[in-house]
Amino acid sequence: MRAFGRTVDASGVGTRARGEGQLGVQPVSRHDVNQQYRLLFETMHFGFALHEIVCDAEGRPQDYRFLEVNRAFEELTGLRREDVIGRTAKEVLPGLESSWIERYGKVALTGLSDRFESYSAALGRFYEVTAYCPERGRFVTVFSDVTPRKEAERALRASEERYRLVVEHSPDGIAVYVDGEIVFANAAAAAILGYETPLELLGRRALDLVHPDWREVVMARMRRMAETGEPAPLLEEKLLRADGLAVEVEVQAVPFVYEGRPAVQVIVRDISARKEAERALRASEEQLRQSQKLEAVGRLAGGIAHDFNNLLTAVGGHAALMLADERLDPGLHPEVEEILAGVNRATTLTRQILAFSRRQPLRLRVFDLNEALSAMEGLLRRTLGEDVSLVIRYGTGLWPVEADPGQVEQIILNLAVNARDAMPNGGALTLETANVQLDEAYTGTHLEARPGPYVMLAVTDTGMGMTPEVRARAFEPFFTTKEEGKGTGLGLSTVYGIVKQSGGSIWVYSEPGRGTTFKIYLPRVEKGIDWCPARLEPTLAPARGGSEAILLVEDEPTVRTLVERVLAAQGYAVIAAASPAEALEILAAEPGPLDLLLTDVVLPGMSGWQFAQLLLERYPGLKVLYTSGYTENAIVHDGFLDLGIEFLEKPFTPDVLARRVREVLDA
């Protein structure tokens, strides 16, 4: 049998070495030999492992298998004995380099011992290894961990090389002074201080280069370093350039030995660029706070608009029915018309709130911004009046954009009105379009923008301009500099919301007395144009009625009563319910054909969309028309209506309701 490579005979007596019998040495029992080897094996500080080489069919080493390891092996490798015995190196260490296998294979197959130091990436350590062959096909490794020494050597070499590279190539100024006099300086130090070469600094007193306002502080630092031998803390101070001007720098001083003498190494960094970056960061943080503020107010405003739109639908709808009723006293018409006018103003206000809060449903179209702008030219001139001249510069080869054309027109009109109000004594308004590529330099200082190709719309007026304080709050809802009663403060916040919901960004440039420029960036799309102003539908005639069966599900009683009354007057057979559960009960009790589901999106128990999916299983040909005063729901995602969805936004008039119902039924 074998005891770690030593041959013993069957009686347990080890094969005698040359001369044993002559010296009269008593035979050692196999048990004693094994005990001695085992004790040495387990207590030695070196890692010990017995392996067998694994070769391919052509006899080339491919791997090796662990046969035995000692306790030191476990400590030096972090591998447990039970996890390695009987397994191959590649199984234990999948990332093992092939060089180890090749080296050990040579030992096992040639019998030549090897001694080397190498790094094991699989174990992340340096080892000093002695490998020898106890018999062909097997090898023993005795090794120690030399990682601390190797790392110390490597660190020393790296430190020396790093210091040399830092001194020669560092953008920071590096200088050394002994007894207060500069004895070394690099090129960067000379450049920071305005000298042509480092030689001009040699022999100068270090304190003479410090700005007078900082000399007492620096002298105290120098005394403390001399007393304690500790590095001086980082300090922002001012130095004097060769031309006598001050330069803001960041200085760190470290005592060390230079050519056998006590010295101080000073690292000087010009921090003017960093200071500028800090100012930009503060501005960016303010932009972020402003954006978060707008988002918070938008969520609140959107929630309020939901209930408000239901009220407007009921009030406006019933007022319209009253006005159309021949029984109404003609003398009451002006009062009812005032009610309708108030509802219209409130509707406009609510839609501004929804647009600002980015919860207005957008119907996307791909179009040319130049065409949309051209179609509005007449309206813009009438809006601006005779005192304001209008100039439009159309960009050539303009890329298409994907947005809601009606909302984009609202953006242009709002900015035009805002510009007109900023020019009470007249002036000029310039609208300009162009293709632009926003790079990281721009987006780095404009947080809400992203790099890429955009179509820009710039709106510039020659008005009174804005102070920095007003400019910072320009897009805040309900913020206005106009007289009380002259504005709602929602014009620019509406523009902001539409732009953001359309995936774009907006920025304002303004100074008091120098006018204002708004720049809007809408993303370029790689799609064909599918909309232009010439394709707008003409004014529709009053809607005709019908006799189809309509299931109305609306949880707001006043709206439900109004819609039921309007549709019944059109001849439809209306089944009205306050919830999906109630609607299902009615349908179970009175089964029959069903042509249209008219449902609010937000309902008790389940959403209108979920209820529609349930009914479509029972009525495969059922048409569905959704209504809502708030669009954060199942049929609108990221502000855009899902494809194929028919939607009627609240508030709506009886005439609009009747027309949309007919359109959906006829589709």
Could you characterize the architecture of this molecule?
This protein is an alpha+beta fold and 667 residues long. It has 4 domains: 2-16 and 26-148, Beta-Lactamase (2-Layer Sandwich), CATH 3.30.450; 170-270, 2-Layer Sandwich (Beta-Lactamase); 365-534, Heat Shock Protein 90; 549-666, Response regulator (Rossmann fold), CATH 3.40.50.2300. The protein is 40% helix and 25% strand. It has 21 helices and 26 strands. It has a 5-stranded antiparallel beta sheet. Strands 9-8-12-11-10 form a 5-stranded antiparallel beta sheet. A hairpin with a 2-residue loop joins strand 1 (2-3) and strand 2. The radius of gyration is 43 Å and the shape is flat. Mean pLDDT is 82; it is low at 1-25 and 535-539.
Describe the main β-sheet briefly. Answer: 5 strands, antiparallel
Give the number of DSSP strands.
26
Annotated CATH topology of the largest domain: Heat Shock Protein 90
Mean pLDDT: 82
How does CATH name the architecture of the largest domain? 2-Layer Sandwich
Question: What is the strand and helix layout of this fold?
Answer:
Elements: E1 2-3, E2 6-7, H1 20-23, H2 30-43, E3 47-55, E4 61-69, H3 71-77, H4 81-84, H5 89-92, H6 98-110, E5 114-120, E6 125-132, E7 138-145, H7 147-169, E8 173-178, E9 181-185, H8 187-192, H9 215-228, E10 232-240, E11 246-258, E12 261-270, H10 272-324, H11 333-356, E13 365-367, H12 369-375, H13 377-384, E14 388-393, E15 401-403, H14 405-421, E16 427-438, H15 440-443, E17 452-461, H16 468-472, H17 491-501, E18 505-510, E19 516-523, E20 549-553, H18 557-569, E21 573-577, H19 580-589, E22 596-600, H20 608-618, E23 623-628, E24 636-637, E25 640-641, E26 647-649, H21 654-666
Helix pairs in contact: 10-11, 10-18, 11-17, 14-17
